[in-house]
Write a structure and sequence with these properties.
Helices cover about 55% and strands about 10% of the residues. The chain contains 16 helices and seven strands. Residues about 200-215, about 385-390 and about 445-455 have low confidence and may be disordered.
């Protein structure tokens, strides 16, 4: 399909119609699938993130991005009108941002229970925080909750994204401090917004930290549906990794004390090349399970993939201090050392990794062997260049055209070998799947069976 045909197709779309949920969306393979509100928004956000890499024509990529953003706005307006429009009338903070309001309604219904009717709820704007707005959520016969709304701006999210994560960290640090202290109930983030729900420490909570409803209270915090992990793993076995990733992400958004959901999201996001998503899952999981070695290791992998070597090195050291699998730690440490130019240390780490390897993760073992072979080839190339220079020096005693050519080619080989190796290594580290280094495979999901005590 050429550029003009694609652009005309997008121009004919009607974004003013109301959408019914679940919504039917035609995939790029031509198959019609049904999506919930949350899944449909995530689908279009993934298309926006990958548009530039899927289309060589920049104009087509921009047209698809605009189409997807309009569809997201349409979905959010439709959801808001069907499930919370009347409750939010007259609240300036919500009327000014109907898209964010639609996300807030979906989050509240998911977190408090879909059976809770928002016509029993009253929203009241009570102020702002750095980068966001604060609303009181009043329920009939229920304790008042606070809802924080953060709009992310630009590719990196800007001030709103930074404030969202800072606020979550602050709230998590207040848990267990006693009555009268604001505590975190739940959070949600998409590519363009973040939402936080809090309550008073006097709310009754179960052992996992979730609020426990009373008979008079509409507030409920449903856990993920039973069997979500087995369902997600069944999707993995069928090769439906995107759908499996959605199951894991939805699970820890509903209940932040689901360790296996964080691990599943980290491993699958890495395989799909969605390294930002893997880093976010590891970051959020690490806050609820700060002593978890597997989550720390996945965080190091995500930082390594993104080229953030300082945070990656700090995180892999933390994973080692938490007694993460020594083979996994040694392989990632070797990659970091070689990328930093510390090849001798990298070789030592690879030697250690070979001794630790028990065959639990064939993909990681293959990565170790490929890196060792690449370093050996690099050394051989440099040795060849050095030999060429030596022979050229001998030939210089009796100047000949052949000696000069040999010297120049050897110099060129020595000069190009190092940069070429470094560029190759960076490409492999930043590439998922068969084109890159296998670090987080489905085998890593087995780590989720290890019980770890959550933060109290």
């Amino acid at each position: 399909m050429d550029r003009k045909t694609r652009q005309r197709r997008y121009e004919r779309k009607d974004y003013d119609q109301m959408v019914e949920f679940p919504v039917e969306i035609v995939g790029r393979d031509g198959v019609v699938r049904r999506y919930s509100f949350e899944d449909s928004v995530r689908l279009y956000q993934r298309r926006i993130a990958s548009a530039a890499s899927r289309h060589e024509d920049q104009a087509v990529a921009e047209a698809e991005t605009l189409h997807c953003q309009r569809r997201i706005d349409q979905l959010r307006r439709s959801y808001l009108q069907r499930h919370g429009g009347e409750a939010m009338v007259g609240v300036p903070e919500l009327e000014a941002t109907p898209g964010l309001a639609g996300e807030a309604v979906a989050f509240l219904r998911r977190r408090l229970g879909e059976e809770v009717s928002l016509d029993q709820v009253r929203f009241e704007g009570i102020g702002s925080v750095d980068g966001g707005q604060v609303l009181a959520v009043h329920g009939k016969g229920a304790p008042t909750l606070l809802l924080y709304l953060f709009a992310f701006q630009g590719v990196d999210g800007g001030k709103g994204r930074e404030s969202f994560f800072r606020h979550v960290r602050l709230l998590e640090g207040s848990q267990g401090l006693g009555e009268g202290v604001e505590v975190l109930i739940g959070y949600h983030h998409a590519s363009d917004c973040g939402i936080v729900l809090t309550g008073d420490a006097e709310l009754k909570r179960d052992k996992s930290g979730r609020p426990v409803p009373t008979d008079a209270s509409p507030w409920d915090a449903p856990a993920p549906p039973p069997g979500f992990q087995s369902e997600a793993m069944a999707l993995v076995r069928r090769g439906e990794l995107e759908e499996a990733l959605l199951r894991f992400e939805r699970a820890f958004e509903r209940d932040p004390f689901q360790r296996c959901a964080y691990l599943g999201a980290c491993a699958l996001a890495d395989q799909l090349g969605r390294f930002e998503a893997a880093g976010l899952a590891a970051e959020m999981g690490g806050r609820y399970f700060p002593a978890d070695p597997a989550i720390a290791w996945h965080g190091a992998v995500a930082r390594l993939r993104l080229g953030q070597l300082d945070p990656a090195e700090l995180e892999i050291r933390r994973a080692a201090s938490l007694h993460a699998d020594p083979h996994s730690v040694a392989v990632v440490s070797a990659l970091i050392a070689v990328l930093r130019g510390r090849r001798r240390e990298g070789l030592q780490r690879l030697h250690e990794a070979a001794g630790f390897d028990q065959g639990k993760d064939p993909g990681l073992s293959l990565t170790r062997r490929r890196l060792r072979l690449a370093l050996a080839v690099r050394s051989a190339v440099l040795a060849s260049g050095g030999l060429g220079l030596f022979l050229a020096g001998l030939a210089a005693l009796q100047p000949t055209p052949g000696g000069l050519a040999l010297g120049l080619s050897s110099l060129a080989l020595l000069g190009a070998a190092g940069p070429a190796f470094n560029a190759w290594l960076r490409r492999r580290v930043a590439s998922p799947g068969r084109g890159g280094f296998g670090l987080s495979s489905a085998a890593n999901l087995g780590l989720a069976s290890t019980p770890v005590r959550p933060i109290q």
